[in-house]
Design brief:
single chain, alpha/beta, five-stranded parallel beta sheet, three-stranded mixed beta sheet, 23 helices, globular
Length: 500
């Protein structure tokens, strides 16, 4: 079965989804001197890599016509078949250090093995380190005559000005509805899919402007529904893809100020593997439209929120977009939007549940005999060395808690009190919840063999993550965890309460 975003990837400049980009590239290729260093900047899925590969082929084509590669000469065939040693692609997200750029530099000064030009396509170039950028700068200031550099990025602001000034910039953007329709129509015609205009409009309205995402989602729909797709089927497909949670329900739940209810839904979406970036973009568009309705622009029902409240939601969603690049927990930025927007009124509901749980635990503790704890041989260094095993002990019961701890650092130990440094208030609140606290302390007990308690403090700035060492195989940790039936049942109940 063909993968649509690969099968229908543009192979000519004229086939690029963004017409303005196609015209700009044709202009460069028809000029007397072709620039040697390009920057393709724009959002994911806008066609940067496809355009770079077409440009690499056109530059090396022996029979280029009106800026287009012929696809028939030996050079074009070699590149199309993926055999061209002179076309070098590098992912700067994985190869971001100075040594990687030095290796690239060595290749650049070697003459091409067969083609006219060596073409270097560097994806996510903004991820390079400062030293790597300095090394790259020296290369693109005076590039060898036989080289072309095409740097691609989703975040041009992170590229140093000294490097930027040496590049010819081509800006890619999200697709407009007409451009997205043209891209989708190629697939519909090519696969002979029976689909109405109303259904196509519905699919396009739910696109985030990314050609690749549109093609991928349509591919999934095609595999699920076949060659005939109705409007109702398309609606059901997108509803299932969002974990059954849409913009209207999200607005309704926000209006009811029930933090716990929304967070539970977002956690379920995380378990179902929902794309939170796309969901956040849909929310941003939805609430932006609601703002416009206050001024008589657009159609639809006005929001239950005031203009001031809508502005706050949009501000928080914009902040969440920036946080998505900084955190490893996909649902966290949206969860913070909910908590910050609802404020004290909604937090009181969560606090009430928290207080009731704490009181219940305290009552249980009163019934227990006091325990004298021997912590001989336990110190901060020992805890740091065992941190990976502690994470392994906790992960089977709660992935979120394990993720919070992975982002934390043990920084102090006195008596039987462990101090953890965390960097987000939300992490601190979650780890200090009674059920999660008990889960962490059970993990400490199983790995270290002593009963410890912990406190969390907020760090002022993010530090390098702790180097994690795992000395105990996962299966051994699991055996230890189920040793005592009563304790393992308690942990199971905690996990069940959290995840349903």
């Amino acid at each position: 079965m063909s993968v649509f975003h690969l099968k229908y990837r543009p192979s000519k400049i004229s086939e690029l989804d963004l017409v303005d980009v196609a015209e700009k590239l044709k202009g460069f290729l028809e000029a007397k001197d072709i620039p040697q260093s390009f920057l393709f900047s724009g959002p994911k899925g806008a066609g940067k890599t496809s355009a770079a590969r077409i440009l690499a082929r056109a530059i090396n084509c022996d029979d280029r016509l009106n800026g287009e590669p012929c696809d028939k000469c030996d050079n074009c065939k070699e590149i199309l078949e993926g055999r061209a040693m002179d076309i070098i692609e590098m992912d700067a997200a994985s190869n971001r250090g100075i040594e990687d750029v030095r290796s690239l530099k060595e290749k650049a000064y070697l003459m091409p093995s067969k083609l006219k030009y060596k073409v270097f396509i560097i994806d996510e170039v903004h991820m390079l380190t400062k030293d790597a950028f300095n090394a790259l700068l020296k290369l693109i200031e005076e590039p060898p005559k036989h080289t072309i550099f095409i740097l691609c990025t989703t975040d041009a602001e992170k590229i140093p000005d000294t490097v930027m000034s040496r590049l010819v910039r081509v800006d890619f953007r999200r697709g407009g509805k007409k451009e997205l329709r043209n891209s989708l129509q190629k697939i519909i015609s090519g696969e002979k899919i029976d689909i109405g205009e109303e259904t196509i409009d519905f699919i396009l309205d739910r696109s985030d402007g990314s050609f690749r995402n549109l093609q991928k989602h349509f591919n999934e729909m095609f595999l699920a529904l076949g060659k005939k797709i109705s409007l109702d089927e398309a609606r059901d497909f997108y509803l299932a893809k969002s974990g059954g949670y849409n913009e209207i329900d999200f607005e309704k739940d926000l209006g009811e100020k029930d933090v716990k209810k929304i967070l539970e839904k977002l956690e379920k979406m995380a378990t179902d593997g929902v794309d939170f970036s796309s969901f956040r973009e849909k929310l941003l568009e939805y609430f932006s439209d609601k703002i416009l309705l206050n001024f008589g622009v657009g159609e639809g029902e006005k929001s239950v929120f005031s203009l001031t409240e809508l502005e706050k939601i949009v501000d928080l969603l914009i902040r969440a977009a920036k946080q998505e690049k900084e955190v490893e927990i996909d649902q966290l930025p949206l969860e913070l939007v909910v908590i910050d927007f609802i404020g004290e009124e909604g937090k009181k509901k969560v606090e009430k549940v928290k207080e009731e749980t704490e009181e219940k635990i305290k009552e249980e503790i009163k019934c227990e005999e006091p325990v004298t704890v021997d912590v001989t041989g336990i110190n901060l260094e020992k805890i740091e060395q065992s941190w990976g095993n502690i994470l392994l002990a906790i992960k089977p019961f709660n992935h979120s808690v394990e993720a919070f701890l992975r982002a934390a650092r043990p920084i102090g130990f006195k008596g039987r009190n462990l101090t953890l440094e965390v960097f987000y208030p939300f992490h601190k609140d979650r780890l200090e919840e009674p059920k999660n606290r008990k889960l962490v302390e059970e993990g400490l007990l199983k790995v270290l063999g002593v009963e410890l308690v912990f406190d969390c403090v907020l760090g002022k700035s993010k530090k390098e993550p702790l180097v994690i060492k795992n000395d105990t195989p996962v299966e051994n940790i699991s055996e230890q965890l189920v040793e005592n039936k009563k304790e393992s049942q308690d942990l199971y109940d905690v996990a069940k309460d959290i995840f349903g």
